[in-house]
Amino acid sequence: MILDIQFCENVRILKIFYLLKSIITIIQIAVPIILIVMCSIDLIKNIINIKDNQNIVSKIVKRMLSAVIIFFVPTIINFTLNLVGNVNEQVGICMNNSTKENIDILQKIENERRIALLEAEKIRRQQYEEQQKKEKEAAAEAKRIRKEQKKQNNVLMGDEDCVDPNTDGRVYVKNGTFYIPGNRESGTDGTQGSAPQGMNSCFYQSLGKLIEDAKSNGYTVTVTSGWRSYSAQVATFNKYGRNPWRAANPGGSRHGWGIAADLGYSPYNAALNWVHTNSKKYGLWFRLSHENWHIEPMALTTY
Questions:
Q1: CA dihedral defined by 262, 268, 273, 275, rounded to 10 degrees?
Q2: pLDDT tens digit string along 267-286?
Q3: What integer is the mean pLDDT of 75-104?
Q4: Is the model's pLDDT at 231 over the cut of 60?
């Protein structure tokens, strides 16, 4: 058995060692004193009652021997642990580190870490709520844009009613809103769409129009990543250090439903500018502000 030194830096473990050390110290000091006192009492009795001299002397010897053994208990334990090698050294580190000062320092660090985690969770929740608000606003804006385009008889978005669930990547579109399953199974079997690169056909309709119009304006826009399998998302997630703000958790990526695409631009700045300026006309937007290549439908919810 080999202990990790970090094991001894855990404040709870250190408190246990501190308690054990305190108990051992008390036993080392208190028990021999008690036994010495008892020996003194026995000695006084021996002086008073000379007849029972042999019995009293025997008691004194036993108690003195017990006091010596108890005093050397830590040494005996240390010797025993030494027989199992590395454990003794690291238990010694734990025992030496288990001071009130070290415990207070570690407790302070743990409290600060707990506060930091709570603060991070608070920020994450705020960001999530802000994102939810943005998505609702985007869905409302998409409906407004579609309504205006209908009046002008110039609808650039894909069909309002597209496919049924379980027939094209488990996504369907009704009244211009994309409906995806509310589970964590994106990228699994049956989620791939029927359009190029596994994209959902309804999403591809709008994206295709955007790409065509970009071309007619002198820009080349390409799809560098469409549908993404669960295993591919695992690899992407691991690549970015398992950070959900840099890559979606496996099973939660919208690429896995075929309703997200990563784009390439040429000439880069001009094409990127045009696409970002005009994407909402096609019911599409760049939901992730830190990814200027990632495009999705504006109106999206779960079923």
A1: -40
A2: 999 999 999 999 999 999 99
A3: 65
A4: yes
Q: Which two tokens stand for residue 237?
A: 């997630």
Q: Residue 165: is the preceding peptide bond cis (ω within 30°)?
A: no
pTM over 0.85: no
Least Cα distance to 2 among 91, 79, 75, 78 occurs for 91
| Residues sharing a CB contact under 8 Å with residue 160, sequence separation 6 or more, in sequence order | 146, 173, 174, 175, 176
Tell me the per-residue pLDDT of 160-215, one tens digit each, with 9 for 90 and over. Answer: 767 656 567 788 888 888 999 988 899 999 999 989 999 999 899 999 999 999 99
How far CA 113 is from CA of 33, 78, 108, 110, 250, in Å, comes to 44, 35, 9, 5, 27
pLDDT class of 298 with cuts at 50, 70, 90: very high
Q: What DSSP string describes the chain? A: ----GGGGG-HHHHHHHHHHHHHHHHHHHHHHHHHHHHHHHHHHHHHH-GGGHHHHHHHHHHHHHHHHHHHTHHHHHHHHHHTTTHHHHHHHHHHHH--HHHHHHHHHHHHHHHHHHHHHHHHHHHHHHHHHHHHHHHHHHHHHHHHHHHHTT---S--SS---TTTSTT-EEETTEEEE-SSS-TTSTT---SSGGG--HHHHHHHHHHHHHHHHTT-EEEEEE----HHHHHHHHHHTTT-TTTSPPTT--GGGGT--EEEEEESHHHHHHHHHHHGGGGTEE---TT-TTEEEESSEEE-
Neighbour-count burial of 41, counting CB atoms closer than 10 A to its CB (0-12 exposed, 13-18 middle, 19+ buried): middle
Neighbours of 35 (CB within 10 A): 20
